[in-house]
User: Fold this.
Amino acid sequence: MAEDQPGPPGSSYEDRPGRHPTEPLGGSAPPPGPPPEALAGFWRRLAAAFLDWLLVGILAAAIGELFGVEPPTPPSTGGDGVNFQFQPAPGPFILVELAYFTYFHATSAGQSIGNKILGIRVLDTITGRSLPYARAFVRALMSNLSALPCFLGFFWMLWDPRKRTWHDIVADSLVVRTTFYPPGEFGRPAR
Assistant:
């Protein structure tokens, strides 16, 4: 059978003899994984992140108060302009944020509290299961870096065909709607 001829009836492109394993399976086929309507959109993810950051802020403030860490204060103004001064890093906030997102995104549900309220969850791109703790930690750490250049890493999902942010790309994760992939139904759509 020639390279460019279709195979026998019932065979697929993958079954074609002579196809190199690294050769794409159909040119510009959509990426593997959930259908586009199953992916969580920008506004839903933003609202979930806002709720999570609010909770993290409250927890971090309580932990900071418990250990006597003062929150950063805004720059003071002098008589002739703004006087910029070095402020200590918001340590409790970063530590609580890393622990919070690592724990919740690595649970079997793959959801933080904000994700649960907004009906979304974080899954492994390949397996459709929740992330292992190490990748959930890398995702949480990278989310801080995604925010540095004017939140460009977060806005990246507007251009990515699978609606992935920089931290999703680094952790090889997807954020999907629970109506399509409810917790407990790993790797299988709800329909």
Notes: DSSP finds six helices and four strands in the chain. Residues 1-24, 186-191 have pLDDT under 50 and may be disordered.
